């Protein structure tokens, strides 16, 4: 089944290079498409401290999406993991998802911290982070996931 | 910019009715599209306790997506909030996103708990829940969000 989406806006940042690490302190602007949205669309989003940003890895376009298992970041010290046991950008549907800190809403622009997306990235959706949707119990993850994120 | 996605699989559950509450104890199967994926795609996903399931609200099709501000669940006791300050299904691009408990991986089938999606829902992506991507500080949310989720 094919599903056609339309970006709701774009990422504006000085970061144009899709390197893998040190994203934590990036501050980024998301400009909504003003032909479709007014300030109403972001009303009250700043009453939440965090927002989930869904975006499209547009630069992964040329690559064939990995469908099977491979070593995360091609690091053979880490075990093989399926594409759905990883979060890398070279994946089916190429949707990225990051929980960001809400800094400020200004009309049709949202300012966030911690978004790991490069300039011009199409944004697909914004969802407020609701505490009731967080994992209900302590999360468990493999050691490689901790190591992978240690420099992120 | 138009973006075309293809579902990676479908939700299989006895729940066929998109009512709003009591989703917490649902156990659900996600069957990958076996014309494209093998068991490799889910390898190691069960080393994570939680998974983020991205899916498509296919039954919201007929409705015009809300683009502006409205009362969550049309409850006028709650304040107006923009569509991007809410998580309801009637939204641009109609992407749903839920953090679910991983129960079991069986070949190309993933069994989860807590997925608020009805039978036949197209699934867009699966991402392991990595602790390092969780909010770094205590989350803040408005009172209406707590009330909305109290019966979910």
The CATH topology of chain A corresponds to: Elongation Factor Tu (Ef-tu), domain 3
Rg of chain A, Å, rounded: 16 Å
* Main β-sheet description of chain A: 6 strands, antiparallel, barrel
Fraction in helix of chain A:
under 10%
Number of strands of chain A: 9
Shape of chain A: globular
Overview of this structure, please?
The structure is a homodimer of 152-residue chains. With 152 residues, chain A is mainly β. Chain A has a single domain (9-132, 141-149), classed as Beta Barrel (Elongation Factor Tu (Ef-tu), domain 3). The first copy, chain A, is built from one helix and nine strands, in the order E-E-E-E-E-E-E-E-E-H. In chain A, strands 2-3-8-7-4-9 form a six-stranded antiparallel β-barrel. A two-stranded antiparallel ribbon of chain A has the order 5-6. Chain A is globular. Chains A and B meet through strand 1, strand 4, strand 6, strand 7 and strand 9 of A and strand 1, strand 4, strand 6, strand 7 and strand 9 of B. Strand 1 (2-6) of chain A pairs antiparallel with strand 1 of chain B, so a sheet runs across the interface.
């Amino acid at each position: 089944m094919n599903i056609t989406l339309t970006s709701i806006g774009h990422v504006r940042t000085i970061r144009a290079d899709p390197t893998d690490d040190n994203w934590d302190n990036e501050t980024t602007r998301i400009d909504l498409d003003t032909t479709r949205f007014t300030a109403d669309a972001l009303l009250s989003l700043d009453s939440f401290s965090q927002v989930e940003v869904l975006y499209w890895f547009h630069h992964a376009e040329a690559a064939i999406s990995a469908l099977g298992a491979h070593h995360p970041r091609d690091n053979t010290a880490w075990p093989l993991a399926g594409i759905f046991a990883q979060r890398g950008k070279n994946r089916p549907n190429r949707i990225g998802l990051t929980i960001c800190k809400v800094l400020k809403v200004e009309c049709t622009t949202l300012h966030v911290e911690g978004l790991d997306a490069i300039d011009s990235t199409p944004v697909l959706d914004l969802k407020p982070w609701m505490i009731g949707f967080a994992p209900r119990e302590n999360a468990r993850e493999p050691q490689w996931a901790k190591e992978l994120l240690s420099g992120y």
